[in-house]
């Protein structure tokens, strides 16, 4: 009887150790990526996009990723890899990321919510708000809110714009055709924006960007 009990105890101990090790492995991973590997990659992202993903103003404006729609982040990283969106730096970053790492980073950035950097001229806010919510009927420009939502937080493939750096928004809307939709045989949701950007004046783009930069 004593031998049987010891054997049973030994079996239970082995199972306990096995499950403990499994649990420890799960605790130290993020979607199949180790916590150490994930943290290293996230820290790398922060060197350009800000310590909390709030964006960064340097030689070039680096976009806010905090609060961004995961589907949009994943789509854009694929676009860089597939050359549908041009950016040599981001191609080098994106093409080495595993699908698990991409998904983990996208989910992590979605959950961040720092205050927007703002900084745009506030006298442009009223005009930007009107365009965002009402569009420009005379130029056949739809309301931005119709796709990006009334709070500009996006939905699925449509990105969050709330809190985005105004100079980044200006740069992207001004150069849309040069950077997006570079593979006509493989179109994506960026095609929706191309005709709209051509109908916006510089002052209208600046107003929209200013309004978005202060939204939380």
TrEMBL record:
InterPro entries listed in its UniProt record: Cyt_c-like_dom, Cyt_c-like_dom_sf, Cytochrome_c4-like, Cytochrome_c_Oxidase_Subunit
Positions annotated to bind heme c 2: 144, 147-148, 193
Molecular functions per Gene Ontology: electron transfer activity; heme binding; iron ion binding
Record domain Cytochrome c: where: 123-216
Keywords: Electron transport, Heme, Iron, Metal-binding, Periplasm, Signal, Transport
Compartment(s) where it occurs, according to its Swiss-Prot or TrEMBL record: Periplasm
UniProt-annotated binding residues for heme c 1: 45, 48-49, 90
Signal peptide: 1-25
Coiled coil segments of this chain: none
Protein name: Cytochrome c553
Source species: Methylocapsa palsarum
């Amino acid at each position: 009887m004593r031998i049987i009990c010891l054997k049973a105890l030994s079996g239970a101990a082995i199972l306990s150790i096995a499950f403990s090790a499994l649990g420890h492995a799960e605790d130290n991973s993020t979607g199949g990526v180790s916590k150490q590997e994930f943290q290293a990659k996230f820290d790398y992202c922060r060197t350009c996009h800000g310590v909390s993903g709030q964006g960064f103003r340097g030689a070039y404006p680096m976009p806010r990723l905090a609060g961004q729609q995961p589907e949009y982040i994943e789509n854009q990283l694929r676009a860089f890899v597939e050359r549908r969106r041009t950016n040599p730096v981001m191609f080098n970053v994106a093409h080495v990321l595993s699908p698990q790492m991409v998904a983990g980073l996208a989910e992590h950035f979605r959950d961040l919510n720092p205050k927007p950097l703002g900084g745009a001229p506030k006298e442009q806010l009223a005009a930007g708000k009107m365009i965002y919510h009402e569009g420009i009927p005379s130029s056949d420009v739809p309301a931005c809110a119709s796709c990006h939502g009334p709070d500009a937080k996006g939905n699925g493939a449509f990105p969050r714009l709330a809190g985005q750096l105004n100079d980044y928004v200006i740069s992207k809307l001004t150069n849309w055709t040069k950077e997006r939709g570079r593979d006509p045989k493989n179109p994506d949701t960026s095609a929706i924006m191309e005709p709209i950007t051509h109908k916006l004046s510089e002052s209208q783009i600046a107003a929209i960007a200013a309004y978005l930069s202060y939204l939380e």
